[in-house]
Amino acid sequence: MTDTFTKNTAPAPDAVQPARVRARTGHRPIRSVLRHAVLILFALVMLYPVLWMIVSSLRPNDVIFRDPSLLLSDLEVGNYTAGWNAFADPFSHYLLNSAIVVLGAILGNLIACSMAAYAFARLEFTGKRLWFAIMLLTIMLPIHVIIVPQYVLFSQFGWVNTFLPLIVPKLLATDAFFVFLMVQFIRGVPRELDEAARIDGAGHPRIFAQVILPLMVPALATTAIFTFIWTWNDFFSQLIYLTDPDLYTVPLALRAFVDQQAGTDWGATLAMSVVSLLPIFLVFLFGQRFLLRGIATTGGK
Amino acid sequence: MSAAAELHSLRRGRATTKPQNLAAFLFLLPWFIGLFLITLGPMSVSLYLSFTDYNLLQPATFTGLDNFTRMFTDDRLHQSLVVTFTYVFVSVPLQLALALGLALLLDRGARGLPFYRSAFYLPSLIGSSVAIAVLWRTVFGSAGLLNQGLALIGIQGPGWISEPSTALGTLITLNVWTFGSPMVIFLAGLRQIPTMYYEAASIDGATKWRQFLNVTLPLLTPIIFFNLVLQIINAFQSFTQAFIVSGGTGGPADSTLFYSLYLYQRGFGSFDMGYASAMAWLLLLVIGGFTAINFWASKYWVFYND
Question: Which of A43, A145, A288 sits opposite B280 (nearest CB)?
Fold first, then answer.
């Protein structure tokens, strides 16, 4: 089923043109204006809460719950300095913790998933179809089914309250979604390139490292960006494995902060929420191209 | 895949002139270790644990079907099922309808597409974060943004998050808000529909509405199906938002007690890990069941062009 799906939706560059042509033919300007009005209004409604959050984080506490507008009379940066230092450690400490987990996860996914993808896309081996089917099934597997024994296992390793339970699984290609994404990509690389390298005497490690990897940079970028966003946002597994406040990542620190002060200092809370979203905004800004291509080919979350 | 087909491919694999089993094994080594150590191993252990009483400190004691019979009398479990099913079956159709509607609107007007697409897609990237859940608490709180807005037109809104009757609605809204990622998949699907179908239809005198019903919709059914399967699976596992909005309790009055939140409470709050494992397997069965039903039903409404 997944194969059929990707075949149907893989973005073919030439398919973009007809859509444009269709759009221009036979449309009256009034309808077009109306449509844009609807779209802009809708976009505004959608993004209003986020914009309000940013504006409110720059307002004094007593104004936040009195002013639903986006107008800012004067800039109150006090929320940011207050929020930054409101936790046990300065907020940069939690940003750093999150960054370590995210970088480890990205590195793991890039290495392990691309290796597995190369085998599935290019090599013949016993039981290949069965293993591939198992790989696809694990994409759909809810984490809850494995979290309890996994927790027991990692606590026996002494890994609870370390970053290892959040990074090591990625080094073992457990994010099968990315294996699938890369398999799809490698299948699109002409086999003649492999053949040429093989005739030149290259073995599989060299074909993989020097032919396939450089060509699959777009797929690697998509993987890195998705891993960044999902790991940065991840809460469930971090909540389970990190209970020492020193090891708190950004989501855990934010949650602890909200619970602790039970909604008294909303200015600082919103300010730190904005800070925690900033990396995602930046990645979105610069990596949008890869994100859109990624979900168009494989239908990511 | 049938055993016969499997045997066939085994034989075919052996017949290949250059068996690449060693190379493949080396490339797949990390994945194999992960599959057995991190996925399949824990899966089978959790299946075993679901038939035991286990609290992490003492060794597990086998209790047969006790955990499963307990489920029949566990009112909070029933409540969590009601909450989760309501959430899935209200938010997913709304989310997909919105995604499809906007994809259709955007597909027609290419000008400004990148801007709109980004604006609509952004929420699905941040929607699962703690920060947005915190934002939701401030927007839907009794003095929150929504009620401030309502006050401007003279309406006194309730405390959406503290009222059991509306709390789940705020989380459904949040899930609907993240319609951007299915929308992008719909957009990619719309691009794949050859324009000649529309040309042929309009030569035959079909109106825009008929073109939508008879060309766009049938050709889009595989994508609708895919989005449906994916979003249902995701929605069943929803956790973070309910956890943050309710402060980990699933309240008020268990009205946001999502299944996975209750599972977390049992497993990692009360260390009732045997029961939590049993719950996890029930979740897997429910998700697997719905996915199977989806696949079975797809025969009757999904149209494959090739």
Answer: A145
